[in-house]
Amino acid sequence: MNDLSNQPRRIRLGMVGGGRDAFIGGVHRIAARIDDRYELLAGAFSSTPEKSKASAADLGVAADRAYGDYAEMAKREARLKTGIEAVAIVTPNHLHYPAAREFLKRGIHVICDKPLTSTLSDARKLKKAAEASGALFVLTHNYTGYPMIRQAREMIASGELGRIRLVQVEYAQDWLSENLEETGQKQAGWRTDPARSGLGGSTGDIGTHAFNLASFVSGLELAELCADLDSFVEGRQLDDNGHVLMRFSSGAKGMLWCSQVAPGNENALKLRIYGEKGGLEWAQEDPNYLWHTPLGQPKRLLTRNGAAATAAGRRVSRIPGGHPEGYLEGFANIYSEAAEAIIAHRNGNPRPEGVVFPGIEDGLAGVAFVTACVDSSKRGGAWVKFGNYNKG
Amino acid sequence: MNDLSNQPRRIRLGMVGGGRDAFIGGVHRIAARIDDRYELLAGAFSSTPEKSKASAADLGVAADRAYGDYAEMAKREARLKTGIEAVAIVTPNHLHYPAAREFLKRGIHVICDKPLTSTLSDARKLKKAAEASGALFVLTHNYTGYPMIRQAREMIASGELGRIRLVQVEYAQDWLSENLEETGQKQAGWRTDPARSGLGGSTGDIGTHAFNLASFVSGLELAELCADLDSFVEGRQLDDNGHVLMRFSSGAKGMLWCSQVAPGNENALKLRIYGEKGGLEWAQEDPNYLWHTPLGQPKRLLTRNGAAATAAGRRVSRIPGGHPEGYLEGFANIYSEAAEAIIAHRNGNPRPEGVVFPGIEDGLAGVAFVTACVDSSKRGGAWVKFGNYNKG
Amino acid sequence: MNDLSNQPRRIRLGMVGGGRDAFIGGVHRIAARIDDRYELLAGAFSSTPEKSKASAADLGVAADRAYGDYAEMAKREARLKTGIEAVAIVTPNHLHYPAAREFLKRGIHVICDKPLTSTLSDARKLKKAAEASGALFVLTHNYTGYPMIRQAREMIASGELGRIRLVQVEYAQDWLSENLEETGQKQAGWRTDPARSGLGGSTGDIGTHAFNLASFVSGLELAELCADLDSFVEGRQLDDNGHVLMRFSSGAKGMLWCSQVAPGNENALKLRIYGEKGGLEWAQEDPNYLWHTPLGQPKRLLTRNGAAATAAGRRVSRIPGGHPEGYLEGFANIYSEAAEAIIAHRNGNPRPEGVVFPGIEDGLAGVAFVTACVDSSKRGGAWVKFGNYNKG
Amino acid sequence: MNDLSNQPRRIRLGMVGGGRDAFIGGVHRIAARIDDRYELLAGAFSSTPEKSKASAADLGVAADRAYGDYAEMAKREARLKTGIEAVAIVTPNHLHYPAAREFLKRGIHVICDKPLTSTLSDARKLKKAAEASGALFVLTHNYTGYPMIRQAREMIASGELGRIRLVQVEYAQDWLSENLEETGQKQAGWRTDPARSGLGGSTGDIGTHAFNLASFVSGLELAELCADLDSFVEGRQLDDNGHVLMRFSSGAKGMLWCSQVAPGNENALKLRIYGEKGGLEWAQEDPNYLWHTPLGQPKRLLTRNGAAATAAGRRVSRIPGGHPEGYLEGFANIYSEAAEAIIAHRNGNPRPEGVVFPGIEDGLAGVAFVTACVDSSKRGGAWVKFGNYNKG
């Protein structure tokens, strides 16, 4: 096991995936760096040792800790006296499970990109592996890291909106409006490939974010859904648009729309929640604002670290209101929350109060959501029970 | 029959409903006045002759043309030498059919508020009555009168967005978030009463507007829908929220949300349409703007009578860009379009090119939409074929 | 004198100017019609009897009340038993004074477009004429008619913002970014012509609106100003951009910007006022909103007839919140306020409480403002005392 | 001298100021970390060795490189084999000059917060010191680091707006609306204290940012200004509001407003520039957007890394459009640009093409701007020549 006796300030981090040409690996690295809680020391950045070493050199990682294989990396790092304590898994979806398993079984904390896995069966196995491990499992549903999202969640939990009636959530993009995967674009390639992405296209890539965010903020539990998925672009193998109706166990209702073929939308993740006493409206592209709409009063524009900021938002906020924080800071908040939990774990302490991040249950729920949507749609848009998927 | 030989500039108008305390009657009167194409000369403003005469006096209508009964009014006005040529029907929904019938059979043009009727059976009968009459039938789906909506429709018809894939439409309000009908508020009273409104609550009152607007702009034909309706407020008899998935005959898909329990929303009717080559986004509360989002280019903010205004928008626009026109001007456009058609009809001419307003088919479609939504929802959110309702 | 014994509902109105090709005349007519308080019965619409009669026919005005000359019109209408009670003067600026004088001296109320006159000397003479007349004088600084502007004024007057410190006002357009006057465009022609417009270009045409609005809402009195005016377009005779610093007698300070050469601005009149306890922000192109920014609290978005609407806004508002009213309704409010005052005058009653419209003093102040700006600018941007201009 | 023979990836950085309770020091550290181009190795974080060591411990800086004095730090670090190559100076303004001087004369690059100094005389001396030094001088006018600001600058330089006519710039805050300095708040304390801030309050703290940004983007050279400054809050020693008119040497005109007493404004830095052929509008609180308003065409909303992104914006942008970058990333861009220049300097190469950051001239210009404003205002708002200040 890793020697943690000297309690360094920073957490020793490794990475699986994230070599040259990858997108999300770089995001994870910046996120890990912003609050200076991690030190990147090892990586299986690519599928060959040579490519992995080249990326390591770019990143200031020692050559002898650049691996061509995540299994080898897990094995060796676990044996090193100051091997990594945590690993970020940033590969295409189908590798999340086999990679995570290797680290979990060696007690190395896993910070994994979403969706959890490419199949529901893998998700269930990974859940078991995580539960069996003493290590932490962190899923980077990064939008939950935004301060105004934290504040929204806190306001709802405290009853400020009253009983929740409605959840309207959407995540619209336009980058797959044409057949980009045929051009050889790498991101489009794997994200539209069932073998690497899984059953869901837009549902898996962004629908899971929308679903997770709605669940995180509202605290509601999905009971049933009805989905109508499409692949509008000719030749596309996975859905590029999803229309979903949701029924929550509390009686609340919801709509979810995810699309990668809506021109003019870059990353238009929007969440609106309405209760008996008021509503909240938030948009990812303008994340420092949160509309609060108390029934019978004018709308109030809450701002990050602004006049009505709450504890939950302030603790994941760095700079004064009016100085926008963005996507990378929100992502960093997941990393820094995880760091708090890892440090507590090092010291045998419980997770500090207020520390929140998505975990393995959220991961399973996300894959269950995609699978239920695909099933419902295949059955002509029939209603399906979410509990049949989100179990095990 | 009315004597039209002297061809006056203005159309002789009567009104059924719209007495003191009514809301929409006043809107119709302003709409009729803005472009000076109508003269209000008669009315059955209320259900008793006394009240009707009181309203007539308020409105400058001669006492001998204030009626306590629409049937009497229709009969007598038809016999007058300069009786009314057109009648505006602005009563609660259940009276639209019986009132309209009386005027249509006497060749008096009908300008009727929406939804067309309170039942599908009445809607079908009214459609027959309108077809049998030589008179025109105009349905005040007033949002179709907004200049930017006209421009949107023209852009789609001309192929500027390419083949349409998606229609996202919503109409959210908050005024019925609590049990207002129990307080005796008149508008809430009839709009939540099945006997006067019909089967649909929010679906009938505002869902029909959303559906009509989406159809008007997109030109798409609804094939199937699946609806999940709720009455969130305890004791409410009709739906106050509707979630609807739509499949169009072209293969396009859509979502429609209507709600009267979404705090912070006054009259938030929003339409977004996406095609292969671009998208359009419009919001009723900011009606002088239309976002055009050509794929692969920056978003363009089109304005009423602005730099990229088209013929269809310009012809229903009065003042320069940057000087906002609003709801009343949009409503007036329906009246003024109708006036063009009525004048042409007087003269035995065909309807002038470019003159557009919602008619009896739109009315039947709207009632069919509500009925199909209610049916679908009762059947657990099953998909239903729209053609089974929208016929006859 | 006019016979008012029968107290008709509507006010008998005449018009000077506003023939074919004019812009603002049509606006005045719609404004007069919206609330049905006026009846247009006479006009000197153009400078020849033939053209005037042609316009009269368009407008449904009897041929024998179409005049080629405002003096003739004033004389004859004053003698008619049911001659006009009020006249709208909608000519280029240099004719305001001579036309208004003819009606005022015959006791006919004057509703006059702004700026009051083309010279300060005319403004002073007109002020004397108005004071000497028993008739009312109404200046159509129409932006003061917007409901949210009324609410803003009321909030400031009631002390809700505390002592006012800052006034930031601007009115930006782009329609004169090129030398449009050389193309023969009629509006550009007279508005850039010193002989017809007066000393000020953008300052006179829109700067006066900005200044009037700031004064109306803030209640502050201008003490000194410093102006830097430019004619950016080659060959232009009047200013097309003005930068003005203002010092108010209370110690508050302000900035005013008017421009007709700012691309992308249609009619971007914006007002921001900040006091010790809060601020207000309003934009003419989105007139149904008013931002209220109480110090130390989140911003509140007030809406017309919305949750926090006040009496002053509600009384000049027609339809529910979320159904936008626009420029024409704001303009109509000036007409309808004037109608209240005229009816009271008919009956020998004092002006009803709450009835507000810009009058002759505002007109003189506007022309004084333009003259002071031009003087300051000519003197190299020196500070000038406003009281030296705004007197007499 | 420092040994650079081994060419490490990261630049060895020290810091003066930025101890516990400071605000801007933490911002500099995150900015330095985001792109992993710096390593913080030494610091005189506070004015006593004990406090400095405490901060060093927080920051992972070795105790033997925590200094109580910047002069001692400069001396010792210059002698170390791997002493710092660059120093960030993040103290109150009056210490910028004496601290920077110590490092510059030892060839250590200086990254200095703004404004350059607290007096014009210091600014001139520092300019000489920087010119005499072989080291680089970087001023963190961080707003110039925003990608859309880079794109705006590039568009103007390339002539896309034509000849520039107007610059409207403002920076409004509200945090000093009351007498916060009397409460002992540390930031308010030094920023309103002439001894530590210099002559300017809002002008120095934020007016310099506005002026620098306008100059950076427009490329215009200020010729004359006229300023009216106020201290609205009783007892305040420095200005808390500034109104400034500007004349540029090209004939363009401008307005600048800075305020710390405008309720509802957090960090509302806004820039609008209009030329003969179009305009640009940008707001710091929504920095990923840039409005482009080509004359005679609809407004275009440009986004960071979006459809119309240019080279200048793309090179300082990390993640896809629609994923907002914020203040910290903009600040990081200054650091990373500086890193490019420092690495080139290490290698004896010229500064790479496209690398841009504010330098010593911008610093002098900023202090000259403040001094000219204060002078103008003291002289009753007289026009003063900028060249009389911005020299030496």
Structure description:
Four copies of one chain form a homotetramer. The first copy, chain A, is an alpha/beta fold. Chain A has two domains: 11-135, NAD(P)-binding Rossmann-like Domain (Rossmann fold, 3-Layer(aba) Sandwich); 146-318 and 363-378, Dihydrodipicolinate Reductase, domain 2. Helix content of chain A is 34%, strand content 22%. The first copy, chain A, is built from twelve helices and 14 strands. The first copy, chain A, has helices spanning 24-34, 49-59, 70-79, 96-104, 120-132, 147-157, 186-191, 194-197, 202-218, 311-314, 327-346, 360-378; strands spanning 11-16, 38-44, 86-89, 109-112, 137-139, 164-172, 222-230, 241-248, 253-259, 268-275, 278-283, 289-294, 299-303, 383-385. In chain A, the strands form two sheets. A nine-stranded mixed sheet of chain A has the order 13-12-11-10-6-9-8-7-14. In chain A, α5 (120-132) links the parallel β4 (109-112) and β5. In chain A, α4 (96-104) packs parallel to α5, α5 runs antiparallel to α12 and α9 crosses α12. The longest helix of chain A is centred in the C-terminal third of the chain and has 20 residues, at 327-346. The radius of gyration of chain A is 21 Å and the shape is globular.
Spell out the key features of this protein:
about 400 residues, alpha/beta, Rossmann fold, Dihydrodipicolinate Reductase, domain 2, nine-stranded mixed β-sheet, 12 helices, disordered N terminus
Summarize the structure.
The structure is a homotetramer of 392-residue chains. Chain A has twelve helices and 14 strands.
